[in-house]
Amino acid sequence: MNARTKKIASRILSVLGVIAFWIAVWFLLSWSVNSKFLLPSPKDTLIALGELISDGEFFLIAAITLGRIVLGVLISFILGIALAVLTEASKAAKALLSPALTVIKSTPVASFIILALLWIDRDLLPLFITSLIVVPIVWSNVAEGIRSVDKGLLQMAKVYRFSRLKRITALYIPTVAPYFLAACKSTLGLAWKAGISAEILCTPERAIGTELYFSKTYLETPALFAWTFVIILLSIAIEKLFVFGIGKLGSKLRVIR
User: Fold this and answer.
1) Please, which contacts does 29-38 make with residues 24 or more away whose CB atoms are closer than 8 Å?
2) What CATH number should be reported for the domain holding residue 100?
3) Are both 217 and 96 inside the same structural domain?
4) 3 with 99, same domain?
5) Whether 146 contacts 88, CB under 8 Å
6) Are residues 114 and 12 in the same domain?
7) How far is CA 219 from CA 35, 38, 127, 132, 202, in A?
């Protein structure tokens, strides 16, 4: 067994050990409480999870929630980049739009959800909330990346009469890419939680948040834990996939000349 394999095996064992420790803690707490309505055991949760998966609508519900949040994130990436370019290119646009950035960052998510319920269809609300929460972070990070482009290189590009496209691909994109990747890493978990919170409050048809709400209402605590477990797994999966994909894209963009 080579050093790399040993390192991977050691990491896997470490992760499994941590998981086993917390499952044991969970089991002991559940055993001491002795009420699955207050704290179901790992076994009760696993049974409830099996029942959810065997339900014909489980994968549809998970896919719809996942689709809403992913679409909201993609929209927010596009809007955030566009707003960053606009505000860095125009002082007037920056003066007009910066207060909106401050307001969005400072206002609690629940307030936006309650206000948006007055104007937006409940099936579209999670998508809107996800986009609203992510846009300011992408906007500010990309804007910071644009400002950090080396001024000496920009002057050199001007002297050598680089076209606008070449300046963008050779100077701006490689510099901004790490800032954008940092925004992705910091927003994906936040976007997922904001989208689920919106679903819980507006209860759209076929949504994980709606299932959580009804599980709590009808005191189906094992199902509540099972859906929470599903949310955690999907959150980890989507974050890993997004970061991996954006990382690969960033590596290619950094070498563009």
Assistant:
1) 36/221, 36/222, 37/219, 37/221, 38/221
2) 1.10.3720.10
3) yes
4) no
5) yes
6) no
7) 12, 9, 28, 32, 19
The two structure tokens encoding residue 123: 């099936």
Residues 129 and 140 in one domain: yes
State how far the Cα of 240 lies from the Cα of 245, in Å rounded to an integer. Answer: 8
Two tokens, residue 181: 């990747």
pTM of the model: 0.81
**Please, how many CA atoms are within 13 Å of residue 195, restricted to the half-sphere of its CB?**
30
Q: For residues 25 and 88, what is the distance between their CA atoms, to the nearest angstrom? A: 51
Cα separation, 84 vs 139, in Å, equals 5
| 3-state SS track over 122-162 | CCCHHHHHHHHHHHHHHHHHHHHHHHCCCHHHHHHHHHCCC
Rounded Cα gap, residues 70 and 249, in angstroms: 18
Q: Does 19 share its domain with 121? A: no
The pLDDT value given to residue 154: 66
Same-domain check for residues 30 and 45:
no
Give me the residue label for tokens 């076929």: 206
CB 114 within 8 A of CB 159: no
Same domain? 22 vs 117: no
What would the two tokens of residue 75 be?
A: 């929209």
Angle at alpha carbon of residue 217, lines to 107 and 220, rounded to 5°: 120
How high is the mean pLDDT in each 10-residue block of the chain (257 residues)? Answer: 71 85 90 86 91 88 90 91 89 85 81 84 88 89 86 70 73 82 83 89 88 87 91 84 68 52
Which residues constitute the domain of residue 28?
1-34
Q: And the tokens for 39?
A: 């704290």
